[in-house]
From TrEMBL:
UniProt name for this protein: Cobalamin biosynthesis protein CobM
Major localization listed first in the record, in broad terms: membrane
GO cellular component, one term: plasma membrane
Annotated membrane topology: Multi-pass membrane protein
Localization per Swiss-Prot or TrEMBL: Cell membrane
GO biological process: transition metal ion transport
PANTHER family found in the cross-reference section: METAL TRANSPORT PROTEIN HI_1621-RELATED (PTHR34229)
């Protein structure tokens, strides 16, 4: 899902960057009043490193194409959406600079898809489905957030004139639907393990109760 430089026209990339800067300004505005800034900065640093490393690991899949997990949904559940916005930006920037995953001009577009959309939709749909069941809420929030991100990227590529709608749906949707299902299951397991082994981590700023 990391779009490289050159896929998005420069004028569109600038628009995505402006939106990204506005989102980051919102983060710093909210973070300014945070009474636990030092502790939260450490969390952001730790989760940024984890997201950078683990989301870059490619895993073989039955689809014949290696996959990598986003981790943004589970990080949102653990530390909350505001801090996750910065975690996602830092990890995407590091991946672009160090691993050549994505690019610099396309970083704004990638952040909107993988950082902003996944974070916000995970939060919203978890809150919606938590009334049913926690495991169901974790799974559906993960699945829906990744699919929202997929359709957002489809829209970006269509606007950029990179591919047609039918080709994008046929290639991206089944692939990321598979990833979202697997990641949703893993996220349920991760949250349950944290509840048993490190429950205080979930109580300090996350949305899992």
């Amino acid at each position: 899902m990391h779009l490289p430089d050159g896929i998005i026209p420069l004028d569109q990339a600038i628009v995505y960057w402006i939106i990204t800067v506005l989102i980051l300004c919102f983060f710093f505005y909210k973070f300014r009043d945070d009474k636990t800034q030092t502790k939260d900065m450490i969390k952001i640093a730790i989760f940024s490193v984890c997201c950078f490393i683990l989301s870059a690991v490619q895993v073989p899949s039955p689809l014949g194409i290696p996959i990598h997990f986003f981790l943004i949904p589970v990080i949102t559940l653990i530390i909350g959406p505001v801090k996750t916005l910065m975690v996602s930006f830092i990890s995407l920037l590091a991946q672009a600079l160090i691993l050549s995953m994505g690019g610099i001009t396309s970083l704004g577009a990638n952040f909107i898809v993988m950082g902003f959309i996944i974070t916000i939709t995970t939060y919203v749909f978890y809150k919606i489905f938590i009334e049913l069941n926690e495991s169901v809420a974790i799974f559906l929030a993960t699945l829906i957030s990744i699919m929202f991100a997929t359709f957002t990227q489809v829209a970006q590529l269509i606007i950029a004139g990179a591919m047609n709608f039918e080709s994008l749906l046929a290639s991206l949707v089944p692939f990321y639907l598979f990833i979202s299902i697997i990641e949703g299951i893993f996220n349920i397991i991760i949250i349950r393990l944290l509840k048993d082994m490190k429950p205080e981590l979930l109580k300090e700023g996350g949305i899992i109760k």
